[in-house]
Amino acid sequence: xxxxxxxxSTKGLLIAFLVISIVGVLLGIYGSKNNLFNxxxxxxxxxxxYYNQVxxxxxxxxxxxxxxxxIDNIYGDQFIKFYVRSYKIANYPFTxxxxxxxxxxxxxLNEYDGGFEQYSSYGAAIDAAKARGINDPKININVTxxxxxxxxxxxxxxxxxxxxxxxxxxxxxxxxxxxxxLSGVWEDGVLKFTKDIDQVKNENRKYATNLKxxxxxxxxxxxxxxxxxxxxTYLIDTNSMAFxxxxxSMNYEENLLPNSALGVVTGAVLILxxxxxxxxxxxxxxNFYKSILKVPFEIVVFGAIPLWFMCAMMAADxxxxxxxxxxxxxxxxxxxxxxxxxxxxxxxxxxLYCLKDVFYNGFSSKVVNNSIVSxxxxxxxxxxxxxxxxxxxxxxxYLKDFDPGKRRNLMLFF
Length: 414
Prior knowledge:
With 414 residues, this protein is α+β, with helices and mostly antiparallel strands. The chain is built from 14 helices and eight strands.
């Protein structure tokens, strides 16, 4: 039987899927280019990239013997350079001031370049010292010292040694005006910026704002740590590979991905409207609907749809790491969007047809008869009827010659 018209034909519907999918993809591209839908303000996770790197720059828990600490970027993903000159009490856990504010058990491993280590109890600290072969451990429970003040230099830039953070801020800014630089001083709980976000170019303000907020939060937590004064400079080199990778990743997560999702949702809604305004009688005559209805309802609902969402999440994670693959209209990213809209469209039309089929035909509908549950019930129902009929035939054959007047037959019957 031929399809009624092209809108219900397999060819017509596939063309409609393709056109709607392309519209959805183009909407996503337009949205990402024009910030139609941006999740930047609500993306707290991206902020922690700044927070963790700033927090790592303070080295609050111990200083070791060296007054210079180079903190290596072993993963190559830290886009913030920091230059911190810290004036602090080197033996703070062993001072009277520390003990007034805390009852933590601290083991001094400075002679072994281990800084200070905290333990839950005195016994645990003793055991840790023995494990290291330390016979006479220095533990703050039984040792109190006068404060020893020292200056420390902390950085993840291996091209400098002892430095003036404010001088570095001036020199780095003169080298490249595009650099994002925040510098200042912290003393007695008061934070003051000497170079603030008002000196950062407008296109980089959102990164500078995140960095400043991270500095505020981290520096607000350094009281009772022995740090007396900090002179700092934090630098984001906007031309560095680490920052380019971060910027690309953030653009994907905050801009490209949500706008692409908006395009997919738009395409799905358009296909849903197409199905809602379709005539059921013409749908029944369509080869397309006859074909998709051969798939049992349970496979679509409990198999295909969850698989679709799982693949979508895997694809989103993949492209968040491989953002270089999203640079042309023929990118796999956009081709997968077309596939996503088309497949979810087929699922939508399938479910709509099932609902209409049940509404018009009830339990005699095709979707009910073709479901796995229905087939299982029919199978066991037929088996039960078959066994019943077989049992009935045996009973009939046995009772055919039964004479209740005979005593033997009567005894066998009971």
